[in-house]
Amino acid sequence: MVAKNFGAAVFGVDAKIITIEVTVVQGTKFWMSGLPDSAVKESAHRVESAIKHYGHRMPRQKVVVNLAPADIKKEGSAYDLPIALSVLQASGQFKCDTMKDYLVMGELSLDGELRPIKGVLPIAIEARKNKFKGFVLPKENATEAAIVNDLDIIGVETMQEALDFFEGNQEIKPLEVDTRDVFMTELNNYGVDFSDVQGQDNIKRAMEIAAAGGHNVIMIGPPGAGKTMLAKRLSSILPPLSLYEALETTKIHSVAGKLDVKASLISTRPFRSPHHTISDVALVGGGGNPQPGEISLSHNGVLFLDELPEFKRTVLEVMRQPMEERKVTISRAKVSHDYPANFMLIASMNPCPCGYYNHPEKECVCGPGVVQRYLSKVSGPLLDRIDLHVEVTPVSFDEMTGTMKTESSEEIRDRVITAREVQSRRFVKDASLHCNAMMPAQMVKKICQINDAGKTLLKTAMERLGLSARAYDRILKVSRTIADLAGSEEIKIEHLAEAIQYRSLDREGWAG
Q: N or C: which end of the chain has fewer CB within 10 A?
């Protein structure tokens, strides 16, 4: 007889249903078809050991396993459990009429215990979409899958427990999670706050503008000025995630295997800070078995690149297209995967190798031309895609020891949310736009109109700073955000002037 049950394969951040077919016929050996990779092929040994561990018999005949559709490559070890159950069913050691109603996934250890797998959330979503009654999976993954409603989540610890459930010998109550309750409980639960930062009011203002408009930021300043401290707190002033954004973010982390076993839903905006030795594949995604990179793990959150010039140039350049398109397409000969990458880039750097160029007290010891060579490690096209260039100066002793109360992240976030609501109404007819930073060039001309005095000011700035057309658009977008924070329908000259001052690295002679 042919035994069938169902699993799933993850492609990009979505899943596709896979049918596991097993038959036992005359002959010898264990055969597997359906484009399995090495991890899937090796399941034969894990399945045989697990079956024997519980006193069952591994057929001594020819066992043929087919993973359909056969033209799609199958990867990973999550097919162990459905293959084992189908082998037992095909050899007449196990009978069950309800298994077709469930999707089954799980990696087996040699003693039949189940290990956690990747990509559980997109698989559970696909199972519900295909009207499966339930999803049988390792117990450690059950909490993650349970955020999908209208699907029975059956967490099991061993292969024998799964057998007993399907045979009716053991009742396992489906795990239930109140998705909205989990979401609201963890919402805005950040461990850092802007009230911890003394001084740096001008940098806080730049961060508020960046959060309000979704703008990218680069901070330039000496060591110990507080660049990293400020960057780590940016997520705490961004608008709260919507439930849809939380599910989308959780799917990416689930596929990458980065989701905590105890976590079910990511309710706070992600903050990713890769080391400067990262490779281009690790940053944007890809590899032999394509996986999301850091820019996709930062989706709906913040990607912080500390010591920007220390990153390899090739690594930085691959970010240029994703920053514009807000997605990454990983193409292979037979397949391509799209990973979302709608992130805010926050970068920081020293102004020179020694770190003290333009320092108010310490003297720079770098030789002639060294500062310019150091800054040139970051290409002009990449800097053009960063809206705000902010100089960070050291905090004075009086500011550090001051007792003046500073604004909390919640107070700043309230103003940011108000500005984002204005933008939501502005872009209500275009579902792909959520903030000012996402405006295409043709919309900038329509939305960011300025008066004659503003045009004169901007023309002078463009000529003196030698700004590119992209930098021109960036200034208009930032000034529109500043106007939104001020509750102004028009972009006034003071809004434009403030936006222009956030182009420090464009100033002629800044690096000598």
A: N
Residues 235 and 371 in one domain: yes
Total tally of structural domains belonging to the chain: 2
Q: H or E element: which one contains 230?
A: helix 227-232
Q: Are residues 296 and 403 in the same domain?
A: yes
Same domain, 166 and 242: no
CB 116 within 8 A of CB 138: yes
Q: Which residue has the tokens 């397409």?
A: 329
| Closest among 157, 17, 159 to 83, alpha carbons compared | 159
Rounded CA-CA distance 297/310 in Å is 22
DSSP 8-state code for residue 343: -
Of the candidates 249, 217, 239, which has an alpha carbon nearest to the alpha carbon of residue 230?
Answer: 217
Instruction: Sort 131 into a burial class: Cβ within 10 Å, 0-12 / 13-18 / 19+.
Output: exposed
Cα–Cα distance measured from residue 397 to residue 399, given in angstroms and rounded to the nearest whole number: 5
94 residue type, one letter:
F
**Whose structure tokens read 């940016």?**
234
Q: 354: part of which helix (H) or strand (E)? A: none
Tens-binned pLDDT, residue by residue, of the chain (512 aa):
788 999 999 988 889 999 999 999 888 888 899 989 888 999 999 999 999 999 999 988 899 999 999 888 888 899 999 999 999 999 888 888 888 999 999 999 999 999 999 999 999 999 999 999 999 999 999 999 999 989 999 999 999 999 999 998 889 999 988 878 877 777 777 888 888 888 888 899 999 999 999 999 999 988 888 899 999 999 999 999 888 898 999 999 999 888 876 677 888 899 999 999 999 899 998 877 788 999 999 999 999 999 999 999 889 988 888 888 888 888 776 778 888 999 999 999 998 888 888 787 888 888 888 888 888 888 888 888 889 999 888 877 676 666 677 888 999 999 999 999 999 999 988 878 889 988 888 888 888 889 989 899 988 888 887 777 767 888 999 999 999 999 999 999 999 999 988 887 765 545 54
User: Could you tell me if 38 and 164 lie in one domain?
Assistant: yes
Is the same domain home to 196 and 327? yes
Where is 461: in which H helix or E strand?
Answer: helix 452-465
For residue 34, the domain's CATH number is 3.30.230.10
Indicate whether 288 and 140 sit together in one domain: no
Query: Are 241 and 140 in a shared domain?
Result: no
Q: Where is the domain boundary, 131, 146, 177?
A: 177
Q: What is the CATH number of the domain that holds 317?
A: 3.40.50.300
DSSP structural state of residue 267: -
Q: Is residue 463 assigned to a domain?
A: yes
State whether 149 and 191 are in the same domain.
Answer: no
Domain boundary among 177, 207, 242: 177
Q: State which residues form the domain around 33.
A: 2-177
**Terminal CA-to-CA distance of the chain, rounded, Å?**
80
Where do we find the tokens 């689930």? 254
